Structure to design on (247 residues):
């Protein structure tokens, strides 16, 4: 019996850098599990669409699919868009079983990736000392999603023994620039901003622009393609595949 196919389902963006980053991440996953059929798909704005990928897998003979949502917080896209896309695909294909796993989320191991990206940014900016950090994320109208970012910021701050503030590019205060200015008002000057985004796009660019204007000395790149993220995708897949096994 063939293993279920894995679909890594991202949100999508008009920015071509975003899709390229997702492709690189999925390539990392494929390198770790060459025995699996692994596809990437997008909810909107990028191609291929989820419907297109499901149709392709069905034509190839797959009747079981595990979907891993490449989303960092449990907000609208995770609660509404992903279930809607899966329901539509299941309705089109009789006998097809699709299991959505937990979202990628904000795993503690992602702090390792944040550190890598931050070290790269600090090296490029020739910065050796920091007074404070800002953790910039997309932001959501769902307060629980924002609280998850704030919790990760606290853990990151404890790790480096530095004050860390969570900031948001939309839907919730403070913006990255506001967070930087608040630290500067406290007398801190060496403030760096970490981009808690999966891939480049409008929101991380905007957060970086506002942070730089406010006086941030370095802004890191988004998480991007990294083995820690690839391993997390495969861990989510493993749970979903087990859940597809008849009891």
């Amino acid at each position: 019996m063939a293993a279920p196919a894995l679909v890594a389902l991202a949100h999508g963006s008009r920015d071509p850098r975003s899709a390229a980053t997702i492709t690189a991440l999925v390539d990392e996953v494929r390198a770790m599990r060459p025995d699996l059929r692994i596809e990437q798909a997008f909810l909107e704005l990028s191609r291929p669409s989820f419907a297109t990928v499901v149709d392709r897998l069905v034509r190839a003979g797959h009747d079981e699919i595990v979907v891993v949502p490449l989303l960092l917080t449990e907000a609208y896209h995770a609660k509404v868009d992903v279930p809607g896309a899966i329901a539509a695909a299941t309705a089109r294909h009789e006998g097809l079983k699709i299991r959505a796993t937990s979202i990628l989320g904000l795993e503690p191991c992602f702090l390792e990736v944040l550190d890598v990206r931050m070290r790269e940014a600090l090296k490029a900016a020739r910065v050796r000392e920091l007074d404070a950090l800002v953790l910039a994320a997309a932001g959501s109208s769902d307060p629980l999603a924002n609280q998850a970012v704030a919790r990760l910021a606290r853990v990151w701050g404890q790790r480096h023994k530095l004050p860390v503030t969570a900031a948001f590019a939309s839907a919730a205060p403070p913006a990255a620039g506001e967070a930087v200015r608040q630290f500067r008002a406290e007398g801190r000057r060496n403030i760096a901003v970490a981009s808690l985004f999966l891939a480049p796009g409008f929101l991380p660019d905007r957060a970086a622009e506002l942070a730089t204007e406010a006086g941030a000395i370095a802004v890191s790149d988004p998480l991007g393609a990294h083995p820690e993220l690839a391993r997390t995708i495969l861990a989510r897949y493993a749970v979903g595949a087990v859940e597809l096994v008849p009891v």
